[in-house]
Amino acid sequence: MTELSNGDLEVHLEAFQRGTVDLIERSQLVRLLDESLRIDRPLRVKFGMDPSSPDLHLGHAVQLMKLRDLQLLGHRILLIVGDFTAMIGDPSGRNKLRPQLAREEIERNLETYKAQAGAVLDMDRTEVWNNSEWFARMGFEDVLKLAGRMTVARMIERDTFQERMKTKEPIGIHEFLYPLAQGWDSVQIHCDAELGGSDQLFNLLVGRQLQEQEQQAPQVCFTLPLINGLDGRKMSKSYDNAIGLQDEPEEMFGKVMSIEDGVMESWFTLLTRLPQEEIAALLAGHPRRAKARLAQEITAFFHGLPAARAASEAFDRQFKDGELPERIPERGWPGAERELPLANLLHLLEMVPSTSEARRVVQQGGVRLDGEVCPDPTAAVQRPRGELLVQIGKRRYVLVRGQEESTS
Fold first, then answer.
1. Which of 55, 117, 134, 367 is deepest in the core (most CB within 10 A)?
2. pLDDT (tens digit, 9 = 90+) per residue, 310-340?
3. Helix, strand, or coil (residue 391)
4. In this structure, which long-range contacts are made by residues 87-91, counting pairs with CB atoms below 8 Å and at least 24 apart in sequence?
5. What CATH fold (topology level) applies to the domain 247-320?
6. Contact in structure between 58 and 227 (CB atoms under 8 Å)
7. pLDDT at residue 47, as a whole number
8. Prediction pTM value
């Protein structure tokens, strides 16, 4: 029985190309696919994930769904869990020195990564590697030899480093090792192609260079765009703007409904597998109907169609008819003080990641107390005698009960 499920070169090429930003080199990919189909040898496609946080979100799903397409066609997915490189910290897209993660934190995050990736990929048909398998065996002499394969002039060509040098932000020497380490992963597993976000192109090209130095065939490099989160910035758990893969159906549906209209085409292409003709027809119609279809497609992928339809109906009841959600988290008053500044209260209730983020959403008019907009982040909020409904935007609610002390 053939491993590759479809022998049409154009079908395989389209699976690689859909939504891509970079493809280096296309002609090489065509040759690889032609040979792959001729001798029935799946391509080995690498994707690296650093366990820098415990949860995955739709930004990660963009890459994982691409890998799923290739896996369904019979290609071999090589998932590199960067338990070693996470201790360096990927400088991609960073304008500041990135803090290094402790081994204990990495181990905690690792526990959830494979399970969450398994919501998209068939993990029984996925090779999973921890790159500590080879890096933990390297001595300082080996590190020096690896560092000697790249010049400083070449390293600082990277856009991220250029920007940080202009603004006089510090760059740690250890950060120069990250692209080399990621590239060395490619040498170790002999991959044919590597997928990454558009901010990863430099790292992917380093892998291509190192493979050539090791007399291996250089990998094809292809990247996908980074998607923005709910506040217009890059989707990230640290910005509290992400849609988590483990979000409940109603929460996932509602968050997708809150994205900007202008990103719908990209999200349809990257996070659904609707034909481009159908996407174009949806976008030519009413934006609200298009977004509802997008929210349903994404929610159905992770939770099933019945749950997605139920989430859609709940959303309509809440926002068309003005109803509150059926399930609102409840918390006791967070602390012994009789009153708290609004920004502090939001942070203590864990509705925002920081008081600075709380001030931002309050000043933008996004916070309501018992249905009334409160625009002052310093406003003193009294501990309620009964209950206080705290709301951020259209999705985040907490019912604060005054008579209870928080145990958090």
1. 367
2. 999 888 877 766 666 767 888 888 878 888 8
3. strand
4. 88/174, 88/175, 88/177, 88/178, 88/181, 89/52, 89/174, 89/175, 89/178, 90/50, 90/52, 90/178, 90/182, 90/203, 91/158, 91/160, 91/161, 91/171, 91/175, 91/178
5. Tyrosyl-Transfer RNA Synthetase (1.10.240)
6. yes
7. 94
8. 0.75
pLDDT digits (tens, 9 = 90+) for 149-168: 988 888 888 878 888 888 88
Residue in this structure with the two tokens 């603004």, named with its chain if needed: 167
54 close to 101: Cβ distance less than 8 angstroms = no
Q: Which of 226, 88, 94, 234 is nearest to 161 (CA)?
A: 94
Q: What is the pLDDT of residue 99?
A: 58
Question: What percent of the chain is predicted at pLDDT more than 90?
Answer: 42
* Mean pLDDT, the chain, whole residue set: 86
Beta strands 220-224 and 22-24 are antiparallel
The superfamily in CATH containing domain 330-405 is RNA-binding S4 domain (3.10.290.10)
Cα distance between residue 137 and residue 145, in whole Å: 14
Return left, alpha or beta for 94; rule: phi > 0 is left, psi -120 to 50 is alpha, else beta: beta
Is residue 152 within a helix (H) or strand (E), and if so which, with residue range?
A: helix 152-155
Q: Which amino acid is at 239?
A: Y
